[in-house]
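Support request, please re-run this one:
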Amino acid sequence: MAAIRLKPDYAAAHVNLGSALGKMPGRLEEAIAQFREALRIQPNSAAARENLGTALLRTPGRLHEAIAQYEAAVRLTPGDAWAHVNLGSALAALPERTGDAIAEYEAALRLRPDLADAHNNLGLALEAQGRTDEAIEEFGEALRLTPAVAEIRLNIASALLRVPGRENEAAAQLEAYLRVKPDDEQARQVLAQIRSGQR
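Re-run finished. Output below.
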């Protein structure tokens, strides 16, 4: 706030204030207003567009606005892998845009092959298209890069359960997941079904 009072036309200060407001309960609209003010001052601010896209994505009914902001951010910074991931995640919320989401995740991975989130999100999009074997590969790469993220194991298990004969591998992933997240009753029930031969 002090930076804005001293220099109200400083776009980065509005972005920073918007980011802070966005983390506070009930302040999302104020955050959006700050990002829009940053863009009024500096229309080519990729940071403002990405942050605005994220805030809009968290606001019910504003998905298409979020996508437009993320698309603008990608145009401004095509070499930013995270810009492609963010756009891909927004596009993936529209089933008819799954192919476009996949293209964005692939663009991110060309820039940063070590980006685990891009591999994981690509896996989810591929699975949505029924490309299960490719999805399993992407989930596996995400897990290799970030072995501490237990949720990736759930994604692997879910994909493996779609492939006949791979139930034991799915069970192994669920067992590893439950060692980290022992309170997940749904995962525990699925594991019990596999063990009893019901899956």
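The chain has a mean pLDDT of 94. Residues 171 and 191 are 6 Å apart (CA to CA).
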